[in-house]
Write a structure and sequence with these properties.
By secondary structure, this protein is of the alpha+beta class. It has 34 helices and 30 strands. It has a domain of 223 residues. 44% of the residues lie in helices and 18% in strands. β10 and β11 form a beta hairpin. α7 packs antiparallel against α8, α11 packs antiparallel against α12 and α12 runs parallel beside α14. It is a peripheral membrane protein. Belongs to the VPS16 family.
């Protein structure tokens, strides 16, 4: 009898059964759908209702102000707001995929609301064409809209995320003078088109056009593919005629048309063949058309809802109140003033169990459970009959349970599946558990207080992640948290959204008390971002709460930027230096640098070694003046002196600093300033003296360059300056440098000897050697001559060397082996020099002869 009562509610359309169970008795009061514009979100989403300003309606006990009200699918009011927007009449209203309510008024202005009836700023526009010509019709799809203006222009937004309006190509017949002929629009969604961009289908009179972003095409249809007189009406013709209404199937493959002569025509979009051609009783276009899954088409006139299938007679449902058709992926929700129903094709598993007279294995298994409950032996007989198909019967019961909205029937079907599973060893036992988990989630969200009547097919298509997102957006955080825990999903998103919503909703709660409430829940999820919640608190004007929250953030990379944004620079600097992350420290340094006065900034970083060192390293390369101020404020005068000295060197690298350039004057002044600063500290006496001499040398070199007009002196050493003066023949200048810098006689002889050898002035060199006895002998003269590769000149001075070892080595260097051997033999070094020379002059036997006495002695 149970099977009979279930199947008695079904309607047969040719060979397919349809059912229309009631989901909710609507909880709202005084809502008349005929007096309002209504927008219903897919997947059991919210319902937006606003009084239709295009109709003259009688006001009862209500305000004259129009209100936008948002209900859940059970008719429970979620939110409302007064509608007081300019721009003319409300033309269209629909929910986007992310449950944002899109409202388009006559001048093309777009107003957006969230589920709490809060206006989302800024308001957008469909463009100048819509503003000038006014919008007359809107067609929405998942995440876009196309608008038709009074001037016949099509303006489209392909994605609500970008909100970029695009003007589509002009369609023949949509000119302003031709608007008297019937026009209707529909859209083929991007996921079903070859280009991946939405296609707008426009019917103008007898023609149907496909409008894409940059082109317009005309569609031509062939004759019906089915020519059976029993399945088609006698008056079915080949020509479609004027189209008054059209819609695209859920999979984008079929186009349903209602013609001027009352025919409903379904056309294959790929083959362009007519699949269904049925003549209705009325030639008046239906108020609404919708696909019921992929098996039938619904047409609604006043009080009559007709369902047309591929073949056979249609099914009629009669209503004494207005209804709204809400297409879903597996059926159509039917919303009326009093209730919400779900019209769908009966699933095959449900049909096999509850169809009157069914003897399928699933039906026998369901019946066996009934006999088992009544302790009847008939239960065993049924199991024996279906033993070979028991696993299929169990699967059918599980599948049928998933498609049921009635909890009692779900439980009965799952008990039947569990009963059969006990006798089926090869069945995956996780299937029952998985279905139970899914049904528990679905039953929870189907509760009228939540009002999301998802079917199992819709739930799988929507995914649990999106469902939880919609629950938290509706502030159903407790249910979202329990579902997340039940499905082993990440709870962080739910808890964070709850925390942010709690802060927003608690403006008068003290910060300390609210912090305790938040931490109690935030600690449930390890690794949760306290910084994100603190950011929201700061945005809500709760800066103290934000500072307390961010203290619990373990990740410095998130903690420090937030501390800076809420003005806690001191704490941010401490956290950044403790983390050891130089990038974070620099972030804080640059932020404080811009926000605080210099002295205050210097005081903050002075006590923190890492921050101070990083600042100094950066400022040395880019901000010398600021670094000077820092060193002066901290009493590091010598560091300022070093900076000045470095600046003088950098100034010398300037290409203009040559040939007596005036840049040398500032350089000398900088060095003198550095000397003065060095002189103020006892620890830097050497640096002070060095700076003084450097300045003196620069002055002399500057004068030399000015007099010689050669940029070869500045920044060279004292030795090089003297050598260059001698090479240029300016002995007076060389003697002056020697005197100014107290160059010793020993160094003077070396420098002058080599300088004269460089210019090969051998006469002057010889004269210089005879002026007085050189303080360190004639070695500088010998070295200078040998270095200039002048052996003859070297022989003038080698015999004058008093040290036999030096003399011998000099002879050896110019290749005079005999003389070198004589010197080595006279040297009292135990034959060491002879041994070295023997290795140098390998082919000369004289060294072997001279070494023999030393070898005999050893």
């Amino acid at each position: 009898m149970a099977n009979v009562s279930v199947a008695a509610e079904w309607q047969l359309l040719y060979d397919r059964y349809y059912r229309k169970p009631e989901i909710y008795q609507m909880k709202w009061k005084h809502v008349d759908l005929s007096r309002n514009k209504v927008a219903c979100a897919s997947f059991g989403g919210p319902i937006a209702v606003i009084r239709d300003d295009s109709k003259i309606v009688q006001l009862y006990a209500e305000s004259a102000l129009r209100k936008l009200r948002i209900f859940n699918s059970a008719g429970i009011l979620l939110s409302e707001t007064v509608w007081k927007h300019p721009g003319g009449r409300l033309i269209g209203m629909s929910w986007s995929d992310d449950q944002t309510l899109i409202c388009i008024v006559q001048d093309g202005t777009i107003y957006r609301y969230n589920i709490h009836a809060e206006l989302i700023e800024p308001n957008m526009s469909m463009g100048q064409e819509c503003f000038e010509q006014n919008v007359v019709e809107c067609v929405f799809w998942g995440n876009g809209v196309v608008c038709l203006t009074e001037g016949g222009q099509l303006i489209c937004i392909f994605d609500f995320k970008t909100m970029k309006p695009s003007k589509l190509p002009d369609v023949p017949g949509l000119a302003e003078d031709d608007l008297l002929q019937p026009i209707c629009l529909t859209v083929r969604e991007p996921k079903y088109t070859m280009s991946g961009i939405a296609e707008v289908l426009v019917a103008v009179g007898d023609d149907i056009f496909v409008v894409e972003e940059d082109m317009v095409q005309t569609i031509r249809f062939d004759e019906p593919s089915i020519d059976d007189s029993e399945m088609q009406n006698d008056d079915s013709g080949n020509l479609i005629g004027v189209v008054q209404k059209m819609i695209v199937s859920p999979n984008g493959k079929f186009l349903t048309l209602f013609t001027h002569d009352g025919r409903i025509v379904v056309v294959d979009m790929e083959t362009k063949q007519i699949a269904i051609d049925y003549s209705c009783e009325s030639a008046l276009p239906p108020q609404q058309m919708a696909w019921c899954g992929m098996d039938s088409v619904l047409l609604y006139w006043d009080e009559d809802l007709m369902m047309v299938g591929p073949v056979g007679d249609p099914v009629h449902y009669f209503y004494d109140e207005p209804i709204i058709l809400i297409p879903e992926c597996d059926g159509v929700r039917i919303l009326s003033n009093t209730n919400l129903e779900f019209l769908q094709r009966v699933p095959d598993s449900t049909e096999s169990i509850f169809k009157i007279g069914s003897t399928s294995p699933a039906a026998l298994l369901y019946d066996a459970l009934d006999h088992f409950d009544r302790r009847s032996a008939k239960a065993d007989e049924n199991l024996r009959l279906i033993r070979s198909s028991l696993s299929e019967a169990v699967e059918s019961c599980i599948d049928a349970a998933g498609h049921e909205f009635d909890v009692t029937r779900q439980r009965a079907l799952l008990r039947a599946a569990s009963y059969g599973q006990a006798f089926c060893s090869n069945f995956q036992r996780e299937r029952v558990q998985e279905t139970c988990r899914t049904l528990r989630v679905l039953n929870a969200v189907r509760d009228p207080a939540i009002g999301i009547p998802l079917s199992i097919q819709q739930y799988k298509l929507l995914t649990p992640v999106v469902l939880i997102s919609r629950l938290i957006n509706a502030n159903c955080h407790l249910l979202a948290l329990r579902i997340s825990e039940y499905l082993d999903m990440n709870k962080e998103v739910v808890i964070m959204h709850w925390a942010c919503a709690k802060i927003t909703a608690s403006p008068s709660t003290p910060d300390s008390h609210l912090l305790e409430i938040l931490l109690d829940k935030l600690q449930l999820c390890k690794g949760i971002s306290y910084a994100a919640v603190a950011t929201h608190a700061d945005n809500c004007g709760r800066r103290k709460l934000a500072a307390m929250l961010v203290e619990h953030e373990p990740r410095s990379t998130k903690q420090v930027p937030l501390l800076l944004s809420i003005g806690e620079e001191d704490t941010a600097l401490v956290k950044a230096t403790e983390s050891g992350d130089t990038d974070l420290v620099y972030l804080v340094i640059f932020h404080i640098w811009q926000k605080r006065p210099p002295l205050e900034f210097f005081a903050m970083i002075q006590g923190r070694v890492l921050a101070r060192d990083l600042f100094v390293a950066y400022a040395r390369c880019h901000k010398h003046e600021f670094l000077k101020d820092f060193f002066l404020s901290t009493g590091q005068i010598h560091e300022v002196a070093f900076l000045l000295w470095k600046e003088s060197w950098d100034m010398g690298k300037n290409p203009m600093a040559s040939k007596g350039s005036p840049l040398h004057g500032p350089r000398i002044k900088l060095i003198e300033k550095a000397r003065n600063l060095f002189s103020q500290t006892k620890e830097h006496t050497f640096e002070s003296k060095a700076a003084e001499e450097h300045a003196k040398l620069l002055k002399i070199q500057h004068e030399l360059e000015a007099s010689t007009k050669q940029a070869i002196f500045v920044d060279s050493s004292i030795n090089d300056t003297i050598r260059t003066c001698i090479v240029l023949g300016n002995n007076r200048a060389a003697i002056k440098v020697k005197t100014e810098f107290k160059v010793s006689d020993k160094r003077w002889y070396w420098l002058k000897a080599f300088a004269l050898a460089t210019i090969k002035d051998w006469a002057a060199l010889e004269k210089f050697s005879k002026e007085k006895r050189p303080p360190m002998g004639f070695r500088p003269f010998v070295e200078a001559c040998i270095d200039a590769d002048e052996k003859a000149e070297a022989l003038k001075y080698i015999p004058k060397l008093s040290d036999l070892v030096e003399r011998g080595e000099a002879y050896a260097r110019i290749g005079m082996a005999k003389e070198a051997a004589d010197c080595a033999a006279q040297a009292n070094d135990g034959g060491e020099l002879l041994e070295r020379f023997r290795k140098t002059f390998v082919q000369n036997a004289i060294f072997d002869t001279l070494l023999m006495p030393f070898q005999g002695a050893s």
